[in-house]
Amino acid sequence: MKKLSNKCLQRALRRQRIQAARSLRSRGRLRSRRLRKRVRSSVAVLPVVVSVPKHLHYYARKEVRQEVEDFFETVDDLLRRGREVSLDFTKVTLLFPCGVLILMGWIDQWARSYPSRLTGKYPKDDLVEQMLQQVMVLHQLGLPPRKQISHHDVKRWHHFRGENADATPMEPFMLQLKELLGTERQLGLGNCITEAMINVGHHAYCQASGPWWIFATITDDFVFIALHDRGESVPGTLLGKPIVSDYLKGRVWSEGRADGQLITAAVGGRTRTGLPYRGKGLPEMLDFTKNSPRGELGIYSRNGFYKYQNGIESNGRLKTPVRGTLVIWRIQVLANDD
Amino acid sequence: MYPALLKEDVKVILDGVLTLGSSFLDEAFGGLVRAKGMKPQEIRKKLTISSEIDTYVDRIWSYIEDPRNKAK
Fold first, then answer.
1. Taking chain A, what is the end-to-end CA distance rounded to the nearest angstrom?
2. How many pairs of residues across A and B have Cβ atoms under 8 Å apart?
3. What is the Rg, in whole angstroms, of the alpha carbon atoms belonging to chain A?
4. Residue A188 and residue A206 in contact, taking contact as beta carbons nearer than 8 Å
5. Whose CB among A52, A252, A306, B66 lies 3.0–4.6 Å from A263's, allowing a Cys bridge?
6. What's the DSSP call for residue A168?
7. From B25, which residue of chain A is nearest by alpha-carbon distance?
8. SS3 string of A55-105?
9. Coil, helix or strand at residue A303
């Protein structure tokens, strides 16, 4: 047997320790790699829970609207990245028709584009659950109905969904209006709604027909109507056939910086076709609103908005664009003069 | 309506309807002049419009007699 010097022995022992440490490190790396993989795969099957804002309100102050917009963008982004999403309604306490309409539009699109990747959690609030059940939002999230629709604040709302200008489903609402407002004002109001539906059918969805949604109610003081479609938008439709000034303002127009002005032009009677018998919906709506005390009209489309409120017209730019168009319309109820 | 107008007098009754889109009225009645080339006077002789709301009758006639119809 060879006799080792102390120096040699220490060197051999050090080499052994280094080798042991190396092997430990590589086993650890392997183990952590396996662990990471396992964690990743278990996360992928778990849906990401996204809380729905407490107040689902769109026709509101900028900050409130921004919260709602951020929520939709977050969910859309997650779904586009292939994740499953669970919409958590537990914190929702207040629903506004504008917010619900936009939610219905998004859910409709998500359900078609990402079938079975969207689920949800029931709301805690009874009224909120009844409303979301009534408008089939819970059904689209795979949540079976649990409530009897009994609340007055749910039952008083009419909601309609369609894909053409057939106003037949709105008959009960129109009859209620006729009784309250008289034939002439009911017809005037009905015309505006029909025109808006015709606009969606003819212009909003250029490639094919697409859905529209309406929420409507009558209170002691007001008739309230909200319409939404996810089509080409008012500015998009107008710029589909630009006029000379559009070319001059090309960059501003194309970047959506002047969408508020384009909506104002549409309300003033500018149409894509330039035909005298087209594009009457928005101007008639504005006329009707101006003739109604405390009437209000709000139009949100693509990157812009237009408002008629307290007799003042205004327009502006949205930070986050709205898909399609949202029209909020409020008319004061006057006694039946028939 | 146009084929009927070519053969006989026509009466259109609007009572009972719940919505009447303006673009529909304009296209249907103004279109008789714009698309079919009928003259407003000729339509006046043959067409009667009945509605419990007079403003609608007036509006339809304004669509028929709209000077922009001829410009097209």
1. 123
2. 58
3. 29
4. no
5. A306
6. G
7. A277
8. EECCCCCHHHHHHHHHHHHHHHHHHHCCCCEEEECCCCCEECHHHHHHHHH
9. strand
- The reply to whether A167 touches chain B by the CB within 8 Å rule is yes
| Rounded Cα–Cα distance for residues A59 and A26 (Å) | 59
Q: What is the pTM of this model?
A: 0.77
Enumerate chain B positions whose Cβ falls within 8 A of a Cβ in A.
17-24, 26-27, 30-31, 52-53, 55-56, 63, 66, 68
Within an 8 Å CB–CB cutoff, is residue A69 touching chain B? no
Question: What are A11's two structure tokens?
Answer: 């060197």
Give the per-residue pLDDT at A1.
58
Mutate one of A176, A277, A338 to test the B interface: name it (highest B CB count within 10 A).
Answer: A277
Distance between B66 CA and the closest CA of chain A, angstroms: 10
CA atoms of A74 and A208, how far apart (whole Å):
28
DSSP states of A179-207 = HHH-HHHHHHHHHHHHHHHHHIIIII-SS
Res. B72 pLDDT band, cuts 50 70 90: very low
Contact (CB<8Å) B23/A167 = no
Tell me: ipTM over 0.85.
no
Compare CB distances from B30 to A170, A198, A277 and report the shortest one's residue.
Answer: A277
**pLDDT tens, residue by residue, A198-234:** 776 665 566 567 788 999 998 878 889 999 998 888 8
Burial class (CB in 10 A: 0-12, 13-18, 19+), A161: middle
Show the low-confidence residues of chain A (pLDDT under 70): 1-4, 38-45, 200-208, 240-256, 270-279, 334-338
What is the distance of C-alpha B25 from the center of its chain?
A: 7
Q: Give CA–CA dist A84/A88, Å, rounded.
A: 13
Please list, in sequence order, all residues whose beta carbon lies within 8 angstroms of the beta carbon of residue A303, skipping any fewer than 6 positions away.
A235, A256, A257, A259, A317, A318, A321
* Positive/negative CA dihedral, B25, A163, A333, A218: positive
Residues of B with CB below 8 A from A194's CB? 19-21, 24
Secondary structure of residue A327 in the 3-state scheme: strand
Query: Three-class SS of residue A219?
Result: coil
Residue where the block lists tokens 């730019």: A317
Of A193, A276, A277, Cβ closest to residue B19? A193
More confident residue, A244 or B68: B68
